[in-house]
Amino acid sequence: MEKIMDISLELYKVFYYVASSLSFSEASKQLYISQSAVSQSIKTLEKKLGRTLFIRNTKRVLLTAEGEMLLSHIEPAIHLIQKGETLLSENTTLQGQLRIGASDTICRYFLIPYLQRFHKEHPDVRIRVTNQTSIGCAQLLRDGQVDFIVTNSPNSHLSPAYPAFPIFQFQDVFVANPSAFPLQERALTFQELMDYPILMLSRSTTSEYLYSLFSNRRLKLIPEVELSSNDLLIDLARIGLGIAFVPDYMLTEMRDLFCLSLQEKLPPRQLLLTRQELLAPAAQKFLEYFHS
Prior knowledge:
- With 292 residues, this protein is an alpha/beta fold.
- The chain has 3 domains: 9-92, Winged helix-like DNA-binding domain superfamily/Winged helix DNA-binding domain (Arc Repressor Mutant, subunit A), CATH 1.10.10; 97-169 and 271-290, Periplasmic binding protein-like II (D-Maltodextrin-Binding Protein, domain 2, 3-Layer(aba) Sandwich), CATH 3.40.190; 172-267, D-Maltodextrin-Binding Protein, domain 2 (3-Layer(aba) Sandwich).
- The chain has 10 helices and 14 strands.
């Protein structure tokens, strides 16, 4: 077992701030200590390590190759410590922020009641919702811009590295204006659906799913309209421009429309909540709504 050097965390902390700013004076301001104390700490660290970490001249400070290597290991450690301190400080008075990624449809028709409840119970927490498609939400999660996302499943863009669990089951439906498409008394096949103008979302998990439904039956779907909004699809279906493919939890908005019957029942899908491994207390508290 390798022997651990007797070097205090404070020395590494001073090194991190100097290396990050490449300035002894800036590091002294951030650490609230004198510049001479910063300089002495760096000299002590270099002596203990037996390595020169900085190249100093009258104009600027540069990292040596050894300094850059050390920074690559110290930086993530400092960030983890800062994250832990933040979690502890937020744990006493549920403050901070809640960062969520979801599509406009999921947010409007599913998440709003949960957000309303959370805001009422924890008014000091800032709620930030980033609106993206389910595909875009997967990227938000990978980039660390959100605590968790709620997306349609299946979603091939999600990484298995992130914890995930289903929170809601829904059914996709084809809806139409009965005056424009008097099909209430018929149960259509997928082949027969090809004879009608299909209105669907553009690049999304839902469009991938719908294309696969037709492709699995050796049919090539050519939609009449592709849009980025389910609400707009409903509006176009309402004026008779085509048959829209939408989730059934939007049914409250489908006045003057009816759901087509199919000879093959569509399999249900799920809303999936996928989250970061390490969560702030605000995000942990919000997730409790789905575990009760």
